[in-house]
Amino acid sequence: MSSSLGVTTSLPPPLPAAPAQRAQGPRWHPPLQWLWAWPFPLAVLLLWHLSSAMGWTPEQVLPPPAQVFRTFADMVASGEIWSNLTISLARVFTGFGIGLLAGLVLGTAMGLSPTVRGYCYPLFKAFAQVPVIGWLPLLMLLVGIDEALKFLLIAKATLVPVTLNTCQGIQGVPNRFIEVAKVYGFTRWQMLTRVVFPAATAPIWNGVRYGLTHAWLALVVVELLASSEGIGFLIVYGRQLFQLDVVLAAVLAVGIVGFAIDKLLSLTEVWLLRWRKPGF
Amino acid sequence: MTRWLRTLAFVAAALPLFHPGAAGAQTPEPLKVIRIGVATGGVGSDPIRHGGTTTALAYTDGAFEDEFRKDGVEIKWVFFKGAGPAVNEALVNKQLDFAWQGDLPAIVHRANGVKTKIIAGSGVRTGLYLAVRPDSGIQTLADLKGKRVALFKGTNLHLAASAALAAHGLKERDLKLINLDLAGGRTALVNKDVDAIFDYVGAFDLRDKGLAKIVWSAAADNYKFTRQTHLLVTEDFAARHPQAVQRIVTTLVKVAHRYSNEANRADLFARWGKTEYPEKIWREDFIGQPLRVRLSPLLDPFLVSRYKEAAKDAHALKLTRSVPEIDSWFDRRYLNAALKELKLETYWPVYGPDGQLAN
Amino acid sequence: MSREKSTWVVPPALRGWVLPLLILVVWWWAVASGWSTSPLLVSPAAVWERAVQQVTSGELWTALSASLWRNARGFALGASLGLAFGVLLGWSRWADRLVGPSFHTLKQISLFAWIPILSMWFGLGDGAKVAFIAMAAFFPMVLNTFEGLRSVPREYIEVGRVYGFGLWQQLTRVIAPSAAPSVFTGVQLALIYSWLATLGGEYLMASGKGIGNTLIDGREHFWMDLVLFGVVVIGLVGYALNALTSALERRLLAWRDRTVGRY
Question: Is C40 in CB contact (< 8 Å) with chain A?
Fold first, then answer.
């Protein structure tokens, strides 16, 4: 089922679920389990600290962790991190919104109507072969380096996985569901909202998740290449002036955002699929 | 559990060895390759063409290659599209022996503890220009407030531009400075993505094509806004192969001497004309300036004071976190020996800290 | 978006060609009629000429082979490390408890944010780019291997025990085939991300040769025909990579079709 539609369609959820069905080993209380996450990062931190304190690595290449955290705190205090982050996030969510809407519409159209699919799908698939990065220089030529570039690129990054997964999800709705709905005399609208979309929610959601990851990825790239504000700009600023601690602090912020987005997605997924009862 | 601890300890102990920047053993070995970094991308490829300074001339003429051919030493030129900041990355990773670099990025790496020595000037009083679109209303630096301006950050363009802006009452935050390399900046100007660009002679190119007009020139405003570039050597390399450093400097001085001769002016610009820009653009940047001034390799009080001020400015503009000590950065031994050997001690004029002739 | 076109005018098999041909015609007409004076509007013929020039001068081959070779090295490094690490996380509960959370946190950092750090750590040359590509391949590989291992149902292991399988047999006959689909998905994703990282790395670490550098050159010089040509080449490479993985999947996982299909 997946092969003919191309690699980008059959995606597992980006994060693995909790270990399935296997009987747990020795029983640990949850709080203790949470504690075990710390020794490794703390050891790495210690190693890092020793490495710069003892001079094992040159200071320019690895600034002391204390300095990085201090820089991070300074940048948070001065509002630099926050203002740049909000600009970046605004760009991502705008672009993502555009791409999501377009993707859902296009994917639904292609999923529902074989005619539309016949005309549009091959062209779309060809379009999807070029990763978002490949479109960057072309878009830079066409629309310059202003906000339009960012929105377009982020929208494209979102569009492809959302469209493909929506299309595949809708196509994958088992026929018998439709037949049952017809027996019940559902109107077209009822069919769509009560049968097709709920059944296709899981793959569509996969596409949305993948799309958001790619949207964030595209944003970082475009900000690294040409921007006057945003979190990517901060990273570039640190790089040009050889202040690796600024770079690391900004990367830390990027990681925090990534983490937050992921959590948000998980919560939304739980809410969206709340009606679904696990089969086993 | 102890197995894990042992493995961890082993990894921890071995880690420094795996660092990509860790240099090999420092025992002196016969010289095979000299790696010279150039803080610009040049133009074209195979070979890359580059002009504008004595180092560029040495590259085009193959002067270093000629000098070291009989010893079988290869000269490896590395061009960095990322300019000064990219050279810094290579210097930190010990991937270069010499570098042609501008004042700001060199000060940045010195402030970060990278050990280099400046051994010759190569491109002093280099200009800086502000270019805007022909229909733009911007006429002075002060008009840039709130505008989008392309500036190649981390290069000596950055420092000179920031210093000029500060002198005209503007801080970096008063306008939107977008980090773009020179080619990208020009494209952005033409595309209306930025309102102005701080550029070098490429601005003349745009102007001649009718795509831009030049509204400000550093040389016309204040010599303090001109940029300096130099040739430096890593302390590491100098300690291992001082004779090679001497020969490089001597060769550079010879090249500088040949082209400082006004009789060779036409030849000079003809050579540069085959590189990034056509001849007449280079000529225009040198109008009214004797070749002996611009092509001087001297490390005179003028240059030293420029670098000291640059270090202070950089710190004041928050481009660096400390003010590195400058006096000991210059290593004049090679230059003086070269001048003595070629009997050129009085050929180039010596300038004092105020930009005027010292004697 | 459905269009009213009677099926007998355009047979279903050819429908896919309608839109591309239409676009090509409009494009050609726009250039020929001088509808736009922008220097960016180059004719399809110009793109074709540029393509011919690039292929015959060997420039395309130099750039493409450099990129592909870098991609291969980075992918091999990242995928193999990813497989090993994923097996470690999946196999050993202790490893998962100790290192898992840190890994999942690191994974949240958007890929390209690593470039400036890698550039400062590796400096000049291919090292930084290969390291970056390896990172891009590493993360999806670990995640999918981990999931593959974790989702081996206990029943299978128990059946293996009933048959008296030793560790090696458990690995090769029970765990590996069961985890294989996930691992293979990991390989697919790793391939996608590594190609993405190859291109992005060439933009942001601009020394050296590659197809990404060709694109950037075109952009800098306003050579739209070169940029378009580059885009087509990249699309073709993407398609080839997809086709390769699909073919591999069909061969390696052919036995899967005989069992109950997964969702």
Answer: yes
Give the residue from A84, A78, A164 showing the smallest Cα distance to A129: A164
Sheet hosting strand B196-199, strand order edge to edge: B176-179, B148-151, B196-199, B129-132, B213-217
* Separation between Cα atoms, residue C105 and residue B103, nearest integer Å: 40
Tell me the shortest Cα–Cα distance from A259 to chain C, in angstroms. 5
Cross-strand bridge partners of residue B176: B148
Half-sphere exposure at residue A190, Cβ-oriented, CA atoms within 13 angstroms: 9
Distance, in Å, from the CA atom of B178 to the CA atom of B159, rounded to the nearest integer, reads 14
CB contact under 8 A, A228 and B113: no
Tokens of C244: 């390769």
Q: How many angstroms from the chain centroid is the CA of residue B287?
A: 21
Which of B194, B196, B193, B255 minimizes the C-alpha distance to B67? B255
Please measure the distance between the N-terminal and C-terminal CA atoms of chain A and give it in whole angstroms: 24
ipTM exceeds 0.90, yes or no:
no
Q: How far apart are CA C208 and CA C123, in angstroms?
A: 13
3-class secondary structure, A201: helix
Nearest CB to C122 within list B86, B93, B184? B93
C45-257 CATH: 1.10.3720.10
Nearest to C197 by CA among B20, C189, C232, C81: C189
Give me the residue spans of the domains in chain B.
33-126+228-342, 129-225
Class of domain A65-272: mainly alpha
* Mutation for testing the A interface, residue in B110, B152, B193, B313 having most A CBs under 10 Å: B193
What architecture (CATH level 2) is domain B129-225? 3-Layer(aba) Sandwich (3.40)
C-alpha dist (Å) from residue B186 to B202, C22, C70: 8, 35, 31
> Per the structure block, which two tokens stand in for A195?
């049968």
Dihedral sign (CA C33, C36, C37, C39): negative
CA distance B188 to C124: 27
**At a CB cut-off of 8 Å and minimum separation 6, what does A277 contact?**
none
Q: How far is B80 from chain C (nearest CA, A)?
A: 7
Per-residue pLDDT of chain B (359 residues; tens, 9 = 90+): 556 556 555 555 555 555 444 444 455 678 899 999 999 888 877 788 898 899 999 999 999 999 999 999 999 999 988 888 999 999 988 999 999 999 999 999 999 889 999 999 998 888 899 999 999 899 999 999 999 999 999 899 999 999 999 999 998 888 988 888 888 888 888 888 899 999 998 889 889 888 899 999 988 888 888 889 999 999 999 999 999 999 999 999 999 999 999 898 999 999 998 888 888 888 888 888 889 888 999 998 999 999 999 999 999 888 888 899 999 999 999 999 999 999 998 899 998 888 788 75
Residues 6 or more apart whose Cβ sits within 8 Å of residue B32? B72, B73, B74
- CA distances in angstroms from B269 to B59, B79, B203, B262, listed in the order given: 15, 21, 18, 11
Ranges of each domain in chain A: 65-272
Residues of C in contact with A216 (CB under 8 A): 110
Range B33-126+228-342 has CATH code 3.40.50.300: no
Question: Cα separation of C126 and B337, whole Å?
Answer: 39
Query: What Å distances lie between residue A177 and A1, A189, A206, CA to CA?
Result: 19, 15, 21
The kind and range of the H/E element at C102 are helix C93-107
Q: B129-225: same fold as B33-126+228-342?
A: yes
Which of these, C183, C204, C228, C194, lies nearest to C89 by C-alpha position? Answer: C183
Return the domain boundaries, chain C.
Answer: 45-257
Check C219 against B81: CB less than 8 A apart.
no
